[in-house]
Write a structure and sequence with these properties.
Length: 377
C-alpha cells in the first residue's frame, strides 16, 4: 500500500493575503470610493464625474469585489484540496475590506508571515509599487503592541502559464465566435490600462532603463499571438493598445487608445477584431465599461465586427497558479531549489522588487516586500 503523498509545505508562511484595488458596492459608495482613489492625484473634475457615471450605469456597484470573493472561494477550495492548510485573507487599497483592517485582523490572529498575491500582474508604480506602499502603510498603522506579520509579495505572474493559458483559450474562443467570413483576417488587439508615459518610463528596475510595463505586455501579447497561430494555423496581426486614460489632458499617457485603434483598423480595411484585455485579471469596470460598453459601441458604429476575449478570472489554472507561486516562494524561503514556470522572453520574475523599482512619480514613500525595506528609492 502506498501512503498518501505528503501535503505540500507552505512553511514559513502561515497565511496568504489577497491584495486588490477595491470598488464601490452601491450608489452611495461611488463618490467616497473615487475620493479614495484620486486623493492628491490632480484628476480633473470632469473625468471623475464621467467615471462616476460609468459606475452608476451598473447600479453604483463595481464587479471587482464580487470577483475577488469568487476568487477567494476558489483559492480556498484549491488549497484545501491540495492539503495546504493556511488561512487566506483579503485586503484592498481603496475600499472595504481595507488593507489596514485586514492587517489588524491578521496581527490579532497571530499571523507571523504572510505571502501576498496581488490582483495586478505587471510592473509599474500603479500596478505594483503603490500596492507595496499600501502594505507598508497598513503595517505601520497597526495598533501599538500588535506584532506585525512579515509580508512577502509573490512574484509577478504576467508570464506565468497559469495566467497566460486561460488568455490563449479565451482568445481562441472569441475568434471562433466571429462570423466565418471575417475570422481569418481578424486582428488581435491586446488591451491594457493606460498609464502616464512617464510612469512607464520609470517602471522596472532603473538599471534596466525603465519601460518594463510596456515591455512585459508586449512579451505576453507575443506569446498569446504565437500560441493562437499554433492552434489555428493562421497568423493574426496583433497590437498593444490602451484604455481608461485619465489625468490632465496635457500629460502624455500611453497610446493608442483602443477606440482610435478600432477606427484605424477599419480605415485599413481590417475585417474584424478580437480585444484581449491582457492587462486585467478579471472583468472589472475598465473591462465592462471601457471595452464592453464604450469600445463595443465604437466598433458597432464603425461596422467592425468585434469580440472581447474573457479574462483569466477564476479559471482553475489561474487559481492553481497562486498555489504554485505560494509553494514556490515558500520553498525559496526555506533555502530549497525551485523550478520557476514562465513563458515568453522575459523569464521568471524576481521574488523581491529591486531597489528603486517603479519609482513613485511624487517622491519616495516607504514600501514593503522589496530588496530593501522600508525605503528603497
Ligand atoms: C495600471 C492600472 C491598473 C491595473 C493594475 C491594477 O489592477 O491595480 C488599474 C486598475 C484599476 N483602476 C481602477 C479604478 C480607477 N483607477 C483610476 C485612476 C488611475 N488608474 C491608473 C492605473 C491603473 N489602474 C492610473 C495611473 C490612474 C490615475 C490616478 C493615479 O495616478 O492613481 C480611477 C480614478 C478615475 C479615473 O481617473 O479613471 C479609478 C476609479 C480599478 C477598479 C475597477 C473596478 O471598480 O472594477 C482597477 C482594478
Ligand atoms: Fe485605475
Amino acid at each position: 500500500m502506498s501512503s498518501p503523498a505528503a501535503a505540500p509545505d507552505p512553511a514559513p508562511y502561515d497565511a496568504l493575503l489577497l491584495v486588490s484595488f477595491g470598488g464601490p458596492e452601491g450608489p452611495d459608495d461611488v463618490v467616497p470610493f473615487l475620493e479614495n482613489v484620486t486623493r492628491g492625484r490632480g484628476i480633473p473634475r470632469e473625468r471623475l464625474e464621467q467615471v462616476g457615471e460609468h459606475y452608476h450605469l451598473f447600479g453604483g456597484r463595481s464587479p471587482i469585489n464580487d470577483q475577488n470573493r469568487a476568487f477567494l472561494g476558489e483559492l480556498r477550495a484549491d488549497l484545501a484540496d491540495a492539503g495546504v492548510d493556511l488561512p487566506v485573507y483579503w485586503g484592498n487599497r481603496n475600499w472595504d475590506p481595507y488593507l489596514t483592517d485586514t492587517l489588524a485582523q491578521m496581527a490579532a490572529d497571530g499571523v507571523q508571515r504572510a505571502a501576498c498575491f496581488m490582483t495586478s500582474a505587471y510592473s509599474s508604480w500603479s500596478s505594483c509599487r503603490q500596492y507595496r506602499e499600501n502594505l507598508h502603510a497598513a503595517v505601520d498603522g497597526l495598533p501599538e503592541g500588535a506584532p506585525a506579520p512579515k509580508l512577502d509579495k509573490l512574484r509577478h505572474y504576467f508570464n506565468h502559464p497559469g495566467f497566460v493559458e486561460p488568455v490563449v483559450d479565451a482568445t481562441l474562443a472569441a475568434l471562433a465566435d466571429l462570423p466565418d467570413d471575417v475570422r481569418d483576417g481578424a486582428h488581435l488587439a491586446f488591451v491594457t490600462h493606460s498609464i502616464p508615459t512617464q510612469m512607464n518610463d520609470a517602471s522596472g528596475p532603473p538599471e534596466q532603463g525603465g519601460g518594463a510595463y510596456v515591455r512585459q505586455h508586449l512579451d505576453v501579447a507575443g506569446v498569446v499571438a504565437d500560441r493562437v497561430r499554433e492552434e489555428t494555423g493562421r497568423e493574426h496581426a496583433h497590437e498593444l493598445v490602451y484604455c481608461s486614460r485619465s489625468g490632465a489632458p496635457h500629460v502624455p499617457w500611453l497610446e493608442p487608445d483602443v477606440n482610435d485603434h478600432l477606427a484605424a483598423l477599419k480605415e485599413q480595411g481590417v475585417p474584424a477584431v478580437v480585444m484581449v484585455p491582457v492587462g486585467f485579471v478579471s472583468d472589472h469596470m475598465e473591462v465592462i465599461y471601457d471595452l464592453d460598453t464604450e469600445a463595443m459601441a465604437t466598433a458597432e458604429e464603425l461596422g467592425l465586427p468585434a469580440r472581447r476575449a474573457a479574462t483569466a478570472g477564476t479559471d482553475p489554472r489561474f487559481v492553481r497558479a497562486v498555489r504554485d507561486l505560494l509553494l514556490e516562494r515558500a520553498a525559496v524561503e526555506r533555502g530549497e531549489e525551485v523550478a520557476r514556470a514562465a513563458v515568453g522572453a522575459t523569464g521568471p520574475m524576481w521574488d523581491r522588487c529591486p531597489v528603486g523599482c517603479c519609482a513613485n512619480p511624487r517622491g519616495a514613500v516607504p514600501t514593503l516586500t522589496g530588496e530593501r525595506e522600508p525605503i528603497d528609492q
